[in-house]
């Protein structure tokens, strides 16, 4: 009898789990909590042990959009440490007038993005480097080198490069740079912490944190995002510029300037980005804009006073 | 006899879970949690709208309406302030599904915000910083303090013949 009932339980638990899972596939938001409920059911009934429950959560967790399972708060802490790494390799350019101006442009651009609010907000800082480069740490910390700023001839062009970085943040490209196996372990560790309802953190989290920072920093500084992500960030930048009334041709224009100013042998955008030509070609598929655009006199005056004069 | 109990326990819990799901989903649509450090409820669905309240991180709000990326919300705490918040400041409260509405104060219950402060947090950052003392957190802190207020931004936008009309509504 016992054997018979065990057989029933064995063959009922799995379909039941599948029914719950299928019901919840209709809503991504509910995948994770249901995995928890389902595994709790299994553990309570004695049909699966804690280890097996963990495996189920891991599987379901992997099916969820794992990088999106990180809360903005966790993204914020990752971004701070990625930024600290960038600032250990590049010296900040401490110029108050330029910093204030860049942050006004940055905040304005962020308000026209799909993600105007992050846990800690958007902040922009210039780096004292002749390299032509820019970095966006997860959560909203943006860095532009003096070399890149010198490629910009107008405020619209600075807005274009900042908008490109904001687009990387709004699409969470930085978080997507975390290795998939590591991300699966992060989601699992978070689930365990949540299930335990304990204050003490998972012992694996510090090493997962360190590994994630290495993944993101290496992508930003050395390897670069995928071509698809770069093209997507350009598209996002075009939308932001258009929403605000900045000239969209400014992105084309600054890409042309960057191409002209590249110096062979130096580490710069070329190591981490598709060529300016291919980016311009990709933008031109969706937008019919010229690099020759009307320059607004008020914006140009403040650009010259607050940016150009300080570079 | 144990397997029979076990069998009933499985089916009973599964039935409860399935029956409660639609209710919980409806709850999730109506209630959201503030997921940013400094949030504002505004008088209009625009960043230029007057700030009427500043809900805290982890606070629960009831969503009354949605418009182009903005949500009309009502605070669940005593002042019951109503206004608009951008959707990116709010989280869909995944964990409400397992806890129900336990809060009378408007603050999310401990189980609902189980992820707040969990995972990667200040303590984990502190440990990492200790192991990597060459990293420049001082400038990261300094950078975070640089944030123009909305009055400055509005002036910057107007003077530069720009517009925030389409803010936060692209795609």
Secondary structure blueprint with pairings:
The complex is a heterodimer of chains A (311) and B (171).
Chain A: H1 2-25, H2 28-45, H3 50-63, H4 72-89, H5 96-111, E1 123-127, E2 134-137, E3 141-145, H6 146-151, H7 155-170, H8 173-176, H9 180-196, H10 205-223, H11 227-244, H12 249-261, H13 269-272, H14 276-286, H15 297-306
Parallel strand pairs in A: 1-3
Antiparallel strand pairs in A: 2-3
Chain B: H1 2-30, E1 31-34, E2 41-42, E3 51-53, E4 60-67, E5 70-75, E6 82-86, E7 90-91, H2 122-131, H3 137-145, H4 150-159
Antiparallel strand pairs in B: 1-4, 1-7, 2-3, 4-5, 5-6
Structure commentary:
The complex is a heterodimer of chains A (311) and B (171). Chain A has helices spanning 2-25, 28-45, 50-63, 72-89, 96-111, 146-151, 155-170, 173-176, 180-196, 205-223, 227-244, 249-261, 269-272, 276-286, 297-306, and strands at 123-127, 134-137, 141-145. Chain A has 311 residues and is mainly alpha-helical. Chain A has two domains: 1-64; 72-175 and 220-310, no CATH class. A three-stranded mixed sheet of chain A has the order 1-3-2. The longest helix of chain A has 24 residues, at 2-25. Mean pLDDT of chain A is 81; it is low at 17-48 and 59-63. Chain B has 171 residues and is α+β, with helices and mostly antiparallel strands. Chain B has four helices and seven strands, in the order H-E-E-E-E-E-E-E-H-H-H. Residues 22-28, 95-106 and 110-114 of chain B have low confidence and may be disordered. The interface between A and B is large, with 89 and 80 residues.
């Amino acid at each position: 009898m016992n054997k018979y009932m065990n057989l029933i339980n064995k063959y009922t638990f799995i379909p039941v789990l599948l029914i719950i899972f299928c019901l919840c596939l209709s809503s991504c938001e509910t995948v994770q909590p249901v995995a928890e409920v389902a595994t709790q059911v299994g553990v309570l009934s004695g049909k699966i042990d804690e280890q097996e429950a963990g495996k189920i959560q891991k599987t379901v967790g992997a099916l969820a959009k794992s990088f999106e399972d990180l809360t903005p708060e966790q993204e914020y802490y990752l971004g701070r440490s990625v930024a600290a790494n960038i600032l250990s390799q590049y010296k900040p350019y401490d110029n108050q007038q330029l910093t204030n101006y860049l942050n006004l442009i940055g905040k304005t651009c962020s308000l026209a993005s799909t993600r105007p609010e992050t846990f800690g907000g958007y902040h922009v800082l210039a780096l004292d480097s002749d390299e032509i480069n820019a970095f966006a740490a997860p959560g909203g910390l943006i860095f532009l080198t003096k070399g890149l700023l010198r490629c910009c001839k107008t405020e619209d062009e600075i807005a274009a490069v900042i908008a490109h970085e904001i687009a990387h943040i709004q699409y969470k490209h930085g978080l997507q740079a975390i290795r998939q196996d590591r991300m699966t372990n992060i989601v699992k560790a978070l689930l365990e912490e949540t299930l335990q309802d304990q204050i003490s953190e998972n012992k694996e989290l510090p090493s997962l944190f360190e590994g994630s920072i290495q993944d993101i920093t290496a992508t930003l500084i050395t390897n670069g995002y995928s071509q698809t992500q770069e093209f997507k960030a350009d598209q996002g930048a075009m939308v932001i510029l258009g929403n605000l009334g900045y000239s969209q041709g400014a992105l084309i224009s600054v890409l042309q300037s960057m191409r002209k100013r590249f110096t062979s042998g130096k580490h710069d955008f070329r190591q981490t980005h598709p060529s300016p030509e291919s980016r311009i070609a990709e933008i031109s598929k969706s937008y019919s804009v010229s690099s020759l655009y009307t320059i607004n006199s008020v914006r140009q005056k403040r650009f010259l006073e607050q940016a150009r004069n300080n570079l | 006899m144990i397997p029979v109990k076990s069998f009933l326990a499985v089916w009973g819990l599964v039935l409860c879970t399935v029956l409660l799901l639609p209710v919980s989903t409806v709850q999730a649509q109506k209630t959201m949690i503030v997921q940013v450090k400094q949030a504002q409820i505004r008088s209009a669905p625009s960043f230029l709208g007057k700030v009427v309240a500043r809900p805290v991180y982890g606070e629960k709000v009831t969503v009354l309406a949605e418009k182009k990326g903005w949500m009309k919300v009502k605070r669940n705490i005593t002042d019951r302030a109503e206004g608009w918040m951008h959707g990116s400041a709010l989280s869909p409260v995944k964990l409400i599904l397992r806890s129900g509405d336990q809060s009378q104060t408007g603050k999310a219950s401990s189980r609902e915000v189980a992820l707040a402060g969990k995972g990667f947090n200040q303590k984990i950052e502190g440990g990492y910083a200790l192991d990597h003392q060459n990293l420049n957190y001082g400038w990261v802190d300094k950078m975070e303090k640089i944030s123009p207020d909305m009055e400055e931004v509005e002036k910057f936008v107007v003077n530069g013949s720009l517009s925030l009309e389409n803010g936060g509504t692209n795609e």
